[in-house]
Amino acid sequence: MEFIYLDNNATTMVAPEVKEAMSPWLDVNYGNPSSAYSFGNRVLSAIEQARSQVASLIGAKSEEIIFTSCGTESDNTAIACALNANPLKKHIITTIVEHPAVYKYCVLMESHGYRVSYLPVDTSGRLSMQDLENALLPDTALVSVMYANNETGVVFPIKEIGELLKGTGIIFHTDAVQAVGKIPINVKELNVDMLSLSGHKLHAPKGIGALYVREGLPYYPLIIGGHQENGRRAGTENAASIVGLGKACQLAESLVFKEAAYLAQLRNKIENTLINNLPGSIINGDKENRLPNTTNISFEFIDGEAILMMLDMQNICVSTGSACSSGSSEPSRVLRAMSVPPTAIHGSLRLSLSRYNTTSEIDKATEAVTSIVRKLRAISPF
Ligand code: PLP
Question: Which domains does the chain have, with CATH numbers?
Answer without folding.
Answer: 4-11+256-379 (3.90.1150.10), 16-252 (3.40.640.10)
